[in-house]
Every structure is written in C-alpha cells, then in structure tokens.
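Structure tokens please, single chain.
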Amino acid sequence: DPKTRVNLLSVPPLSFGERFEDAYEVVLILDDREQFAVQGSRSRRIIENVCSQFKIQMEVRRLPVGDGIWIARHRQTQSEYVLDFIVERKKVDDLRSSIRDNRYRDQKLRLVRCGLKKLIYLVEGDPNSSEAAESIKTACFTTEILEGFDVQRTSGLADTLRKYGYITQAITEYYKVELPEDQLKCAAVCPPFDEFLKRCQDLDKMTVSDVFAVQLMQVPQVTEEIAITVLDLYPTLLSLAHAYSILEGDVCAQEEMLWKQSNNAVSASASRNIFQLVWGK
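Here you go.
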C-alpha cells in the first residue's frame, strides 16, 4: 500500500532475523556550526551531562542541512545510515531576523527537500519577549499546521539539549519495536551518511538554478520554456554574466547572444530583455 509506505520511516539494512538494537546504535549528530558544539565551553559540559543522563551518544560534524540529524551506526562494520529525523534549531531572535529576510523560507525548503520524513523545528526562547512575537507565533503555526513540521519549544540551551536527549531516546525506542515483516518489506532503506551528504550538496546546486529560473521568468517575453533553454546553456546567473563579459563592448552581440546560441529557441526580444536584466546599466 503506497500510503502505508509514505508513513513508514526508513530503516537501516538488517540481515534476516537481525534486530535493530543488536545491530545498531543511534547517534545524534550536531552541526559543528552550532554554538554549543565548541570545545571547552560551558555548553560542552551540558552536552556531556545530557549524554550521561540520557545514556545517548552525540557527535559533532559539519552537516549540509539542519542543526542535527540522527544516524544508526552498525556495531560491527561501523557503517552509518541517516535515520528519518532532522532538526532545525532557531533562537527566537534568529527566527525574527530570518523571517524578515526570507532565510526562514529558504531554510525550511532545504529541510523539506533533503528527503528525511520527520522534520523538527525547535524554537528556543520565549517568543513573547520579542517585539515580533506575533509574527513568530504565526510562523510557528504555519510551519506546524500547514507544512507538517513538528514544532518544539524550549526555554534555552540546556532545555534544548535535554529535548534532544528525549528525542534520541524516542527514536531509539521506535526502532527497537519490531516492525511486522510485511511492513519492513515496504519500508525504504535509510541512505548511507555519505550518500545523504552528496544528495544535499546536489540539492544546493539545483537550488541556485531554481532561483535563477524564477528570476528569468520575471523578465518580459520569457516563458518557462525559454527560461529552461537559457538554463541549459547557462545554469547560473554567474555563468551567463561571464558569457556577456566576454562580449563586453559589443552591445549588439550581447543582446543577440542567447537568441543565436539557442537557434532561435530564445526569441530575439527575450534575448535582449535578459541581457538588460543581467547587464543593464
């Protein structure tokens, strides 16, 4: 049943008769840009306390998306698979500024597109203390209800780390409960950690082109087909600007460049308008 499959979380590879808890340990991986990932700080002690209190493992690495993910590490082979959970942590002040400059939407889009099913948005601090309390509450509501994120709220750093502890325990418990054989057959296999990294990096490349396509379609005479034709020739704004720079001084050649290179798939007027957008003085 495809619907069941959508709701089922991915599982790491298991040999016949092998149980998750015998084969794997769950490890929380925190992004190394997180403030509490810095060695020697007060937060380092909090991390150690949380690890011993909750009997969990935490490691710090550079993540391409999100502030934390959970992996299953095979006890024998040390192979690592990314479980279906990812968390983005936002302090109330950060959230306020990222709502203002639209980073908030971009970051959420990246989380959605990374392919993991359970998206956790953790808001740290008291929204009421912020001058933008209403916009923060609205953003949380939208994120949770309309976009299907699990929004968690915490009072501060120590509380956040405790929350990570509880979530890690819950994830471990989820995988300990043996899934029926027929469901296991339906479940997707978790991506290896390296593959997950590569997939996220590929997404980043794609996003640049996506943004460029949207910009192009704001230009008069540029249809979706024309935008795609341009992207095939020049996947990024930078690459197109570079091509124009080679023809610097010959405005006529610059205006006609896309028209000629595309064998008229980009109309002469669209070609001229795109040049004006990119190079317009």
